[in-house]
Write a structure and sequence with these properties.
This protein is an alpha/beta fold. The protein has 15 helices and 15 strands. The longest helix is centred in the first third of the chain and has 15 residues. The relative contact order is 0.13.
Length: 394
């Protein structure tokens, strides 16, 4: 099977913070091992030497990624790679890809991966899909949110296969975005979770159990600091969590210095970073784009903290923690409620603080949940996910 993998990279300045690129870099070699011939069209190469590469322009902003498609370039790429399957990882790009397939005379199957869901539901319900679809505030500059949502629905309509990360994402896409736009996904939807990073795997059974060093056990927050990830709520939680001195918090600055085109649209990561750095018992650190350093920073923590992102369909950073044997506490919503042990989900700030302090001081509780966290990623190896991926796009 020849696969043309169209990859949008939203963080070209720091590839280690771009989940789409990381997934492609992990998945492409596993697909090749399974017999697929993969060509990646992207601003930066991914995968190993067996992976073909066609360089594309950096989209510059999140809006260019959704509304700026060069059909001529797509036609040329399709004719050169002669794919059996084209995977559009920016779902809004799928109609342009379909038009390019027609122009190129290609019979290739078109699969869209819903890497990012540009909407939330007004009742906070990601299970029943009864809520009204709301535009994503991070994609609503100049009132473009509704246009992005309509482009997303158009992308769903153009695809032969629609791939999503999780059961929660499947429900949100099917019963909310698709249904309310009149798009029928019957027989086309597949759940294929992304792979875990094999470099970030550590069996907690090999780690000595202790309650943390002096000054409090360390909880790590390794998520993007965008406002729409609920970071303001995390700032408040970090303040409460560290007040008693039982817990310290390590915050990852994943982006570093961003380009003016990106900060001009949304400077919330920089603002949130400064607010967190000003809190006592909170340290803001950078992995400097080095996955070895990133592993070391995770290894020094006792537990992870999930973001307050509404309707979150998946979190690479949560899986990173769990693969390292770190229990993760999380708000009881979205994919977190589906994936994370119910005993580590919280509704109120007081519950979150109590869980953090118990993980910091109760060795038996920590050992139990460290083992469960690690086990929850066992089926997310690149080899296993590649097999599911190829089955989904066959």
């Amino acid at each position: 099977m020849r696969v043309l993998y169209l990859l949008n990279i939203s963080n070209p300045d720091r590839l280690s913070a771009d989940s789409g690129w990381i997934f492609a870099d992990l998945l492409a070699p596993a697909l090749a091992d399974a017999g697929a011939e993969v060509t990646i069209a992207a601003p930066a190469p991914a995968g190993d030497t067996r992976t073909g590469f066609h360089r594309t322009e950096v989209p510059g902003t999140r809006y260019r990624a959704r509304f700026s498609n060069d059909i001529g370039e797509l036609v040329a790429t399709i004719r050169a790679s002669k794919p059996d399957v084209v995977v559009a990882n920016q779902i809004e790009e799928a109609p342009a890809v379909r038009a390019a397939l027609l122009e190129a005379g290609s019979p290739a199957l078109l699969a869209g991966y819903c890497h990012y869901l540009p909407f939330t539901l007004d009742d906070g319900d990601t299970g029943g899909g009864a809520g009204r679809v709301l535009v994503d505030p991070a994609l609503d500059d100049g009132g473009l949110g509704r246009s992005v949502l309509l482009a997303f629905a158009a992308g769903l309509s153009a695809c032969d296969r629609v791939l999503v990360h999780s059961g929660v994402a499947a429900t949100m896409v099917t019963t909310a975005a698709a249904a309310q736009a009149g798009v029928d996904l019957t027989g086309r939807l597949r759940v294929v979770p992304p792979p875990r990073d094999g470099r970030l795997v550590r069996d907690p059974a090999t780690v000595p159990a202790d309650g943390g060093s002096g000054g409090g056990a360390l909880g790590v927050y390794n998520h993007r600091l965008y406002a729409h990830y609920g970071t303001a709520r995390f700032v408040d939680l970090a303040r409460e969590m560290t007040a008693a001195g039982v817990v310290r918090v390590r915050v990852m600055d994943l982006f570093g210095t961003r380009r003016a085109e990106r900060t001009g649209l949304d400077d919330s990561p920089e603002r949130m970073r400064d607010q967190l750095a000003a809190l006592p018992h909170v340290q803001v650190v950078s992995d400097r784009g080095d996955r070895v350093r990133y592993r070391q920073l995770l290894a020094g923590a006792r537990f992870g903290i999930a973001p307050f992102r509404p309707g979150c369909p998946w979190s690479m950073s949560v899986v990173d923690c769990q693969g390292m044997g770190l229990p993760v506490i999380a708000p009881r919503t979205g994919w977190f409620a589906e994936h994370i042990d119910p005993g580590l989900c919280f509704t109120t700030t007081d519950e979150a603080v109590a869980l953090a302090e118990r993980l910091a001081t109760d060795a038996a509780f920590h050992t139990l949940h460290a083992g469960r966290a690690f086990a929850s990623t066992a089926g997310l190896t690149a080899k296993t996910v590649a097999a599911s991926y190829l089955e989904a796009i066959a």
